[in-house]
Structures
1.
Amino acid sequence: MLSLEEAQSRAQDLVNAARKAGADAADAIYACNASTNVSVRLGALEDVERSEGEEIGLRVFIGQRSASISASDMNPATLDTLVERCIAMAREAPEDPYAGLAPEDRLLKRRPPSLDLTDEEEPEPAALRERALMAEDAARGVPGITNSEGGGASSGRSQVALATSHGFAGAYAGTSHSTWASVLAGSGSDMQRDHASHSARHLRDLDHADAVGARAGQRAVARLNPVKVGSGVMPVIFDPRIGSSLIGHLVSGIVGPAIARRSSFLLDQLGKAIFDSSITIIDDPLRPRGLRSRPFDGEGLPVERRALIEDGVLTGWLLDSASARQLGLEPTGHASRGGSGAPGASITNVHMEAGTTSPGDLRYDVKRGIYVTELIGMGVNPVTGDYSRGASGFLIENGAVMNAVSEITIAGNLKDMFRNMTPASDLYFRYAMNVPTLRIDGMTVAGG
């Protein structure tokens, strides 16, 4: 793995070589990921894996023609060949009036913000093994657990460097630590499985392995003896660990490329109230130690905290430079990219602000409904917003969470679901995308 300084220098050298070879403009991005993973099962070591990979990508422009290419070999001779091939590809590419680097006057000029994304502590494999065993032991110790799919622990580091021919150069790194466990309860055809995990930038922010394992075991046991549910229209309440998927569908509907292609169910909703006025959804790339925090976007633009939904109203699209040009707008600092291909658009750390009602009060008046803890399949149409997914969880009767349920389907349309959504007050920041418990009235439930 190159140091940050070496990575930035390598990206800048590649851009300079492209310009010297005839490119009108160019950018280069370097990315490296290294991780150590240890997994155990039934108290015995199952696997120790160390992976490390790096990639550098070059994008060049000749007039309105562009091409991109990437390589994992950092040898200077290989990179010289990379430049030649990319230039040749660009000369043969079709013209694209929207392609180009980000506007020069919008580039990040100041020192990138410090977000505390790196941890100096790097656990040895023996420490990872101990944490994995501790998580699995805690899960297997829950009464009712009969088997295990294993436990695991990992640590890793990633680095990104970006350079452009019109004046941007920057690099940043981030570390990660995680613990997980997955176990089974019951036996035969009545067996149920569930899991728990936690990830953090810094080891000291990670949940204790005992707590992670106990959650996995308790979740699996709670799913035993599921009951049948009659079909009907009823309230559905989403557990925070899966409710974030609903915000993921919102994000997919407001990214610039989808809007430019006119392939989004939210195409005509800009500036309109699509949620209740109590709902605000924030994208915050500058959260210290955030799992998706970054000091600049994939094109070298500054990033900032912004409301995607404010008091229920859709405030704007998520735009990279190309989609912004196509729509006649300005880029928003949401460009993302890998080693090859043009940038796209994506979010960073997203959360829905908490409501004022406790989870218990949120379901207090529910005569009959479903508390969903797992979603299955991907039955969502991003163009129409039609939503239909397999689910499991628990029956709600007269405000109380009762028996487990499984093999059900929940359905609706995302526009209606957003309008009928109510957040509880239990927001916790555990993931890259965080929501409180969510209630949606009027969903169609088909029993198994």
2.
Amino acid sequence: MSTAADSMTGVLPDPAPVREIDLPHTDDLPEEVMVSPEPVILRGWVSDWPVVKAARTSDKALFDYLSQFDRGAVVPVSVGPPTLQGRVFYKDDFSGSNADRGNAPIGEVLRRIADTGGQDAPPLIYLASATIDDCLPGFRDENDVGFGEHDPLASIWIGTRTRIAAHNDLPRNLACVAAGRRRFTLFPPDQLANLYIGPIENTPAGRPISLVDFARPDLERFPRFAEAMQHAQVAEMEAGDALFIPSMWWHHVEALEAFNVLVNYWWRTVPDYLGTPQDVLNHAMLTIRDMPPEEKKIWKHFFDHYVFENDDETVAHIPDHARGILDPMTDQSARRLRALLLNRLNR
């Protein structure tokens, strides 16, 4: 299968390698990693996992190991013909995903991957973002990472060779390669415009994605992608390696072997009651984006004052008891504000 590195030689710059750090292994992910503003590779961080040891033995050993935890769970799976070359993307007319989606017992999914993944031109079989405790109960008893006070969502991704378009996620992310090899190509959040992101509400897998095919970048259609590659970083990973991805960093992900397994953990450092900024962006498109330019400038000033550049001086002139939602948000005040918003949106 062609790779981004192969196709970009002589056309686009090679991305810089992601920074690697060598830390003594501990039960919990080190704080130094959890607060990093840039991606970080931890080589061999999960190499003691039994699933990694099975994967290094053979695909059959990996299949047998995972099958121990099969309790008949039905999981979402995307499938497609070899002609897709593993790329999960849109149909040509953007009417939906280019892969067929359905549900199947996890044992059947594992069997099909084991039976077909080694073909020269394998079909696309992709189990994406399934909650581990639901689909493989007991797996985390033997294969897990500690996060101290945080309680992350632990998910598993299993498939044949796949190419997942560049996208970003709100939570922080620790991606652990349990089987196979992965290549992550990462970009800072400010490369939004240079990655040519597609529709927000119509997406193949829940998050807006780059429309650039990294294996065959069309620089006539997407000329600013060359600028994005000036800021790119790449992580070449094997089974046992872990990668920390900060919030909102774009990442294009390639699974490079016949049988690939990734375990990832998502967590946020703010309370759940604060909600998601994506909701605010969607609402701003509804209420602000199509205003006359002079009115948009006014509201940009208001957002800067109350949200992006707020400090103690913003509310210093208001008595403490009268500040309302201008005070730091609490669970109680968030509930009141959410109820107010729902009431007004439903008018």
